[in-house]
What we know:
The structure is a single chain. The chain has about 500 residues and is α/β, with parallel strands linked by helices. The protein has helices at about 5-10, 50-65, 75-90, 95-105, 110-135, 165-180, 195-205, 220-230, 240-255, 275-290, 305-320, 340-355, 390-395, 410-415, 430-440, 475-480, 505; strands at about 15, 20, 20-25, 30-35, 40-45, 135-140, 145-155, 155-160, 185, 215, 235-240, 260, 270, 300-305, 360-365, 380-385, 400-405, 425-430, 445-450, 470, 480-490. The chain contains 17 helices and 21 strands. The strands form five sheets. It has a seven-stranded mixed beta sheet with strand order 15-16-17-14-13-18-19, sandwiched between helices. Strands 10-9-8-11-12-20 form a six-stranded mixed beta sheet, sandwiched between helices. Helix 13 (about 390-395) links the parallel strand 16 (about 380-385) and strand 17. It starts with a helix and ends with a helix.
Amino acid sequence: MIDVNRVRQSVPPVLTGLLNGNPADDVSGERIDVINPDNGTVVTELLESNMEQVNQAVAAARISFDGGSWSKASISFRQKVLFKAADLIRKDAEVIAAQDSLCTGLLYHKSTLSQTHFASADWFEYFASLVGVSGEELFRHVAGAKTLVTREPVGVAALFTPWNIPVMGASLKLAAALAMGNSCVLKPSEQSPLGTYRLVQLLYQAGLPEGVVQLVNGRGAVTGAALASNPDVDLISFTGGEEAGRIIAGKAAQRFAKVTMELGGKSANIIFNDADYERALDGALVSIFANNGQACLAGSRILVQKQIADRFIGDFTDRAKNIRIGRPFDEDAELGPLSSVANMQRVLSYADIVRDEGGEILAGGNRVDGFDDGCYVEPTVAFAKDNRARVCQEELFGPFVTFLTFEKEEEAIALGNDTRFGLAGYVWTENLQRAMRVADSVRSGYVLINSVMQREKNAPFGGFGHSGIDREGGQSSLRFYSEGKATLIACADTDIPKMGLTSQDNDQ
C-alpha cells in the first residue's frame, strides 16, 4: 500500500532543471505552480528554464557528445548502464508513479504504476538488448570492393515528452537515443515534471557519464521554443499537440534537423455485427475511458454497424454511467480527474457543441457531483448527427466518446478515414478476411484488430496525416537516433583513369 503522505513529503518544494545531473544554479526563470488536478493544491513550484539556461544545457550536451565518453563508448558499456537504469527504475517505481499521479490526476493503480514499473523500465532493457544485436551490413555489389554500412549517433537530441505518460514517454525516447550513443536534452511537460526529474537522477546513478542527459523545465512557448531553436540541436523527437508540433517542425526544418513527431488522434473504433459482442463492448469502453480518457490512441469515434447499433449503444451507455469515479489513489477507481481546469472546461464545452450541431448527449456531459475541488468530468457519451460534427473531427482528450452508425463495410472505411488525423484504428469482427481488408484500407499508422490499446515494442509507431511525422519503436527508433555511414573499401587494384597527363606521359 502506497503511503501518499510520505510521497507528498518526498516532493521537493521547488524544482529546477538538471545540468550535468545536478540542480541548475540559475533561478532567474519564471515560477510556475504545478497543480494537483484532484484537489487544486500546489504540488511543487517549478522554476522555468529560460533561453540562457536552455543554451547552457545544450552546450553541456554538445561537450559530452564531442568528448566521446558516451558517443564513442562500447556497446557493452552502454548496455550495462541502461540495464542498471531499468533496475533502479523498478526499485523506485512506486514513488515515481505516485509523484506523477499527484501532478496529472492519473490513477495510480491502473495507470502510472504500470507505466513506470513495467513499461518505462522495459524500454531501457529492450533498447539495451536491441542495440546489441543490431549489427553492421556488408555489400559486395561493386567489383573489387566491399561497402561497410555502419550506424553512428547523430549528436544532441532534443526530446519533448507529454504529460499524460510522463515517465514512460521519456523512457521510450531516452532509451533509444542513449542506446545509439547520443547526448540528450529532455523537456517534459510543465504539468508533470516530477517523474522525469527523478528518472534523470537515476540514469546518473546507473553510471551515465557526466553531461550526457540534461533536463530543462518550463512551458512550450518559453523553454520548448528555446530548445527547438538552438542550432546545436541535431534532432528533435516530439510527442504532444498538433499546434505545438507544427511550430517545432518549422523550427527544425529551418536547419534541416532530423525530426519525428507523434501528435494527436481521432481514432475510429469500428464494430461490425459479427464481432464478439462482449469483447467489443469491453474493448470500446477501455479504449476511450482508460488513462482518464487522455490518450492519443483513444477510440473516441465508435462506428457501429446498424444491425447491432441500438443494443450496443444502449449497453455501452449503461456501462459508462456505472463507471466508478474516484481519487487518483483509490484502488477501486476506474476514472479520475482530467489534467487541468483548462482541459476540463474544454471537454465540458463539447456537450453544448454536440447539442448545437444537432447531436444528442446520451450520458454525462457535466462535472462530477461530490468532487467540486477537482477536475472531474462524467463519462460522456454522444450521438453525432454526422461525421462532419466538430466532436467527430477535433481531438477532445477526455472521457468523451461519439457514436456513429454505418451499414456496409465501405461506409465504415470511408467514415474512419474522414479525418485529418491517422494515428490508430480499431476493428472488431470475427471475419478474418474482413478484418484484413479494413486494416489495409484504414489510413492509420497503427491498427488493432479485436484488441484494446497495446504496443508492440518491435513495431514502428506513428501516424498518418496530422498525427505525425516518421516513426519510433524498434529498428525505426535506432535508425532515427543514428546516421547511416557507407564506407567503400577497394579490395583489388582496378583501373583508375590518369587524368591530366599528356599522351606521351600515358605511353610511358
